[in-house]
Structure formats: structure tokens, C-alpha cells
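User: Can you fold this complex?
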Amino acid sequence: MLVERHAADTYRLAAAIVGPFDAGDVTQETFVAAWQQLPRLRDADAFAPWLRRICVNRSRNWLRGVNRRGRPVSLDADDGLASRLPDTRRDFRAAVEARMVLEPAFEQLSPDQRAVLALHYSMGLSIAEAADALGIRVGTAKSRLNAGLNALRGSVIGSDSDAQTEAAS
Amino acid sequence: MNDDQIVEYLRSRGRAEPPLDLVSSVMDAVDRAPQRRSWFAAFVPALAAAGAVAVILAVAVLIGQDGPPSGSTQSPTQEPSSSPTPSATTTPTTAPSSEPTQEPFGASVFDDPDSCEDDSVGYRVAFPDAWWWNEPFASEIGPHPNCRYFASEFFDAATVSREQPIPEGVAISALVVPPDGGLGQLGEVVSSEELTVAGRPATREEQEYAPGGFLVPDERVYRYVIELSEDRQLVFSTGNQVGDYEENRQVLDGMMETLELFEPDAICGPDGDRFVCGQIIVGLRDDAGEPIETVVERNGGDPATDIIDRLDEVGAYVIAVPHGTEGDEISRYRLDEAVAYADLNEAEGELAE
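Assistant: Here's the predicted assembly.
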């Protein structure tokens, strides 16, 4: 019931923060934690944001654990997809190319930056809602959001200049 | 590449398609999880994850009483008392009627009633004389005010632990929680009814096990959620995991007919710009270490559950524990514990980074 209703959204949030490779495990951890922490839930209507907060915390913890353990090599099926795309699908190709550039950059972000970007852009929450989910002030959320975006922009600039250099040579 | 592409990439991260077996794998994980407990777990003061605060609160409550030290347990006593006073007895007490010439409280509902009071919340309730109830005691998870647990059989306060937050054998329990839905949905709601209890709006409902919920198979919960004020609800609950479910329900119904509310005692209170006993202060800090919020919780037999939530979810920590007009030494000692707790939080933060 509760699991069926909220599992997909929880998975998507986890995937947005830690990536699809680990999202299933994080989702399981989230629900187990929710089950164990249920006594702290005082409002049935607040279950969704409460679960979201747990998922964010679990995702951040997961990333920190990954950082300590070492990051596994990505076996994402989409990697390398660009090379198999027909030239006529420019938009899709561009999106995949963007992903190839942005994915590694996103993985370099701090867990906190990842979380706020995921909540705001991937899950569509307002900055205030994202801040609430993270338990931080709106100003802090904005700061992390900008820092995360700037880091991604930086990776794009680096990639573009590399491409230009390659083209020139 | 531009910002639009970056945003589109970020949005695409939220469109991951869950695996088909996601729900079943999650439910399997929940089933395998340790400490799967019955509905009692859902009524525990949210203290287990914040032991230091629990201890602080316990001390804060006990400062104003002659209560026992934390963890003390004794055998039940036969005390003639229709309005129990704090004593060193921590286990349930049953008492013979003491005023034969005066109709006892609750006589209109129970053939042979007894009663008890919780001064910290401000309620008095009658129950069958043969039943047991608890006097105030402290455990490792915090204070347990008078008149919170009831059962037809003897129960032992010493059985309380983080894993067993309510004494084993308790059939009916009371808890004060913040507003909006009491303790949330545990399973499937079988029935729900709006009514008035002790002159306050209340909800009586029954829930049963449902897959994916938080009750064990075949478990049922029956409870009253009473609006005490804008920020507090009093929840009396029973279930089918201890004793006879129908008897438990009948007794709880009778108890709710007799429930009376009164102004709670304030063990301590504000003293100028000082925070005196019965309060804790929890500070939240942002990444730069700047204080961003201070929450003060006063008195009450129940712990500051909202603060505990914040502690757990936000990574906040106690920044001060006030001392009162009594028991300064004890409070200061507990302050050291609070500081140690804060240090622990910070150390974990450093590790995490």
C-alpha cells in the first residue's frame, strides 16, 4: 500500500541523486528506514515529504559511503549510446552528448549539491520545498544550487574548448 | 552546450524507470529488517535515536519530582491511591478503592473503578480496579509519566528498552504528540469516527494490517486521537497483540467516557532571560556553522518529539541545556553529555565529508 504508492517516486529521486545503478538499493534502504522510524511520523498527510527527506538523507549517505569505498565503474547501458545514434536524430543525439559530458561532472558534485539539483530540477520541487526536504535554509539551497550549476557549466566549457582544440588540430 | 541542455539533463535524471520488481524487493527488504515490532513501536516517544536528549529530558522531568533514578525498577506495590503521587515505585500499581463512602471516579462506567492522573499533560482517567497502571519512571529512552500504560495483567517497567519502548504486556497506552493526524496511517483504516471526548474533538479509528503498511500480519489497532490544543494531541491506543482485543477495546471505550482534562502542572518555566528546568534548547547550524534556528521546548511529560525529528533529519544538536532552580548539578552533568553528543554529531559529519 504505502510501498506501492511511493516506491516509484522514491526510486526516481534516488536515481536523480545517486544514479540508476544504485537507486534500487537506496530505495530499499529508504523504506526500511521509514518503517523503523515510523513512530516519528506524526501526520499521515506528511508521509510523502517525510519519506522524501529520508530518501535524500539515505542518498547522501550512500554517496559518502561510495566515496569512502571508491566509486564503481559505471556500466550504465546508455553509456556509448551516442555512437549508435543515427545522425537524423540530432536532438536526441545532442541530449546524449550532453549527458556524456555532464554525467561525470555531476558525479563530481558533493552529495549536498547533487541533492538540491535533483530535488529542484529532476523532481520539480520549488527551491523552498527542496530546502525543506534538505532541512536547510532557502538561501543555503540557492547557494548549493548555484554552486552545482556552475560546476556543471564549468565542465561544459572545458568540454567545448577541448572539442574546439580537437577540431582545430 | 547551454544552460537549457544542462537543465534538460538534470530533468532527465528524474525520469528513471523503476525496475519491475521494485515494490516486491522493497517489501522483502522491509520484512527482513531487524527490530520488526508490533504497533507499540508506533507509539513510542521518538527518543530512541537521540539518547542524549532523552536523558536530558528525563532529568528535566525528574527535577521537579521525587522520582526514581533512571532505570530503577521495583516490584509492584499495593498502594491505596486514587491520585498517585510520584514515588520510587516504577512498576504498575493496582489499588483497592479507598473512599467507600464516596462514589469513586468512573463508577458510572466501571463496576469497580480505579483512576490515575497525568499531571504533566493534565488528564485523569478511570479504569477497572483489577487493571494495572504505571507510576512515573525513567528508562533509557526517557521519562515515562504517570498513568500512561494499562493492562489487565502485571507488566514490568524494567522491560522497557530502545527495542521495546513500551513495557511488555501493556494493553493500552497513552501518548501526547504534535498535531495533524496523530501518529499517521499504520495500515488500512477499517473505521473512523469523529466524536467528542472530554469536551474536545476527537477521532476514534481502527486500523488493520495491510501489505506494505507498518503493522504485522493480522495486527489491529484501535485508538482515540483527542485534540488537546492547537499543538498537542492525546492518543490512547490499544491493539490485538496483548490480552483480549475485545476487552481492551471495551476498557478503552470506558476510559474515554471517564476522561477528564485539567490544567497541567508546570514543573518549571521561564525565569527572565534564563531557561529553567524542563526545557531544552536545540540549535540548528548551517554549513558555515552559523546558528540558523533555535527551538525551545517547555516542560511536558512527553519529550519534544518535533525537536527529536529535527535532530535526526537535519543533523542538529543540542547546544544548551538549561539548569533550573533545583538540581543544577545534575543539569550541568547532563549538559556535558549534550556537548559530547554534539561533538559526536560533528565528528560524524567530518567523517562523512
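Chain A touches chain B through 63 residues (CB under 8 Å). The two ends of chain A are 60 Å apart (CA to CA).
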